[in-house]
Design goal:
heterodimer; A: alpha/beta; Spore Coat Polysaccharide Biosynthesis Protein SpsA, Chain A; 15 helices; 10% strand; B: Rossmann fold; five-stranded parallel beta sheet; two-stranded antiparallel sheet; 4 helices; 7 strands; 36% helix
Chain lengths: 404, 121
């Protein structure tokens, strides 16, 4: 349960709940709440709605800004105990409060989105009321945006769980009461899930639960507060991958039966305005340097983890230099499959070491993707990623073999 | 024997697909447009739909959304003369797509994959 709760209107039930996880969001929470409020009023008229700020004991006035934001919808403020931080813990408190309110649909939206509009709440919430179990957004993205998703999360989840959810690791989604029950009684909850691992944990559980999944066109990019995409890379990489690898152990009997993948239903296809993606600068020299450093530092680890077909390939990739750099998709799929299989046999410290050694390989894969797609349109780059995913799916028997 | 529904407003395509796919061991039924297509699917219960994108009076991509909303896991292969449709994101609701051709090798491969797709439970 949340350490602190403020429910000034004494709300005891709601049909649609929007949760906003926060930590020191005084500058952004008011606009987000205002847009959510408008979305609920416009698209869920006559329904009992509530907005919940689920906070990490912010000291910057987030609570006051939340209650002071314009709008008419009832509000509830929750907070974890001082020092108890992490988005996963926020959402855990949100799940517990949501269960008390017995909703028909829940939406989670991040607090720092600068361009959120009311229709986003419709796109994420309405499919749940029509029977979907989980709604994942489809933001307009630059081809170099969210490379962790394009290189690892999308191909691996799709290959394992058989459903094509393109942006499964964003922090915004809708979900049903059935999934709420699963989130409250999870097969896995650890430190990573309590932090950055929560988003992929939620999507992963939805995939394994076989609930109908809808992807919602949002018609716009997701514009956050400005942040360095690599500032939290190591932590994010560790928490997302360890969550995925751990859940592979939980759901092994499920994913080993899956063959090929299927699409999802879509919502928001009535949006006729499609904004253009924001430009993304990517530093190929930096990516190459990280790969080369990794080669020097982790080659011994790579030799121990990856088989005799992969190691010579890595030497060959290294020999190409920046100008001709290329990381074959087949090699990449094998590396990820081997990593997942080895990960489950290691102790926590060794697991962290494995992920450290995998990170430069991921950055090498990103470099290869950037070079391959630099002259491609967004559409062509998406087709390239689709082809990569097919290589993962074609090699599914390999992960089943090395896992057992 | 898997049943395939071919939806195309060009008669020669319906004939070509019917003959070739019957020879390949499938049961084939056809429809010439999207009129009452959902009712047809409900009644005929095909194992897979091959759907033309550009039909007179019907947009295959809109029909695709209706199919996906009502028959969530029914495999749908988009069939088109041009691959420019991929610029429309609605096409991602299809299992696969093929560019129309008199050589149906690629179509047959995609049909086999779509029918092979297996999700537990």
């Amino acid at each position: 349960m949340a350490f602190y709760e403020e429910n000034p209107l004494g709300i005891t039930s709601a049909e649609v709940i929007v949760g906003i996880p926060t930590f020191n969001e005084v500058d952004s929470i008011a606009r987000t709440v205002e847009q959510v409020d408008k979305g609920l009023a416009e698209y869920f008229p006559g329904m009992k709605c509530v907005i919940i700020d689920t906070d990490n004991h912010s000291a910057d006035g987030t609570r006051e800004a939340f209650f002071a934001a314009p709008g008419e919808m009832p509000r509830i403020f929750l907070s974890s105990a001082p020092g108890e931080q992490g988005k996963g813990r926020n959402l855990r408190n949100f799940f517990e409060k949501a269960r008390e309110l017995n909703p028909r649909a829940m939406v989670v939206i991040e607090a720092d989105i600068k361009n959120i509009s009311p229709v986003w709440i419709r796109n994420l919430g309405t499919p749940i009321l029509k029977g979907a179990g989980f709604v994942s957004p489809l933001y307009v993205r630059h081809k170099y945006e969210a490379t962790l998703t394009s290189s690892i999360i999308y191909p691996l989840l799709r290959c394992l769980y058989g459903r094509r959810v393109r942006q499964a690791n964003v922090g915004d989604f809708g979900f049903s009461p059935k999934l709420l029950d699963l989130y409250l009684n999870p097969p896995l909850w650890d430190e990573a899930v309590g932090n950055f691992g929560i988003d992929i944990w939620m999507a992963n559980i939805a995939l394994a639960a076989r609930v109908p999944i809808v992807q919602a066109f949002m018609g716009a990019p997701k514009i956050h507060r400005v942040k360095d995409p690599y500032s939290h890379l190591t932590v994010l990489f560790h928490e997302v991958l360890s969550t995925m690898f751990n859940l592979m152990g939980v759901y092994k009997e499920f994913w080993e039966q899956v063959k090929w993948s299927k699409p999802t239903a879509l919502s928001g296809t009535d949006l006729h305005e499609m904004e253009t993606p924001l430009p993304v600068d990517i530093n190929t020299n930096w990516l190459h340097e990280r790969f080369v450093e990794g080669f020097d530092k982790y080659f011994g680890v790579w030799e121990r983890i990856y088989g005799p077909t992969v190691v010579p390939k890595l030497q060959e990739i290294m020999s190409l230099g920046l100008q001709h750099f290329s990381f074959p998709s087949q090699t990449w799929a094998t590396i990820l499959f081997d990593s997942a299989a080895v990960f489950r046999r290691l102790n926590p410290q060794e697991r962290s070491g494995l992920l450290d050694a995998l990170l430069p390989l991921y950055l090498g894969k990103v470099l290869s993707y950037v070079k391959k797609t630099e002259r491609m349109s967004l559409q062509q780059a998406e087709e390239y990623i689709e082809n990569e995913c097919m290589i993962f799916e074609e090699n599914k028997p390999y992960i089943i073999k090395v896992w057992t | 024997m898997p049943k395939i529904l071919v939806v195309d407003d060009e008669e020669h395509i319906r004939l070509l697909y019917s003959e070739e796919l019957k020879e390949a061991g499938y049961e084939v039924i056809t429809a010439e447009n999207g009129f009452k297509l959902l009712e047809t699917i409900e009644g005929e219960k095909p194992d897979l739909v091959i759907l033309d994108i550009k039909m007179v009076d019907y947009n295959g991509l809109d029909i695709l959304q209706d199919i996906r909303n009502q028959f969530y896991d029914l495999p749908v292969i988009l069939s088109t003369a041009y691959d420019t449709f991929k610029e429309d994101m609605k096409s991602i609701a299809a299992d696969f797509y093929v560019v129309k051709s008199f050589d149906l090798t690629e179509l047959k491969k995609k049909i086999a994959m779509a029918l092979e797709t297996r999700l537990p439970g």
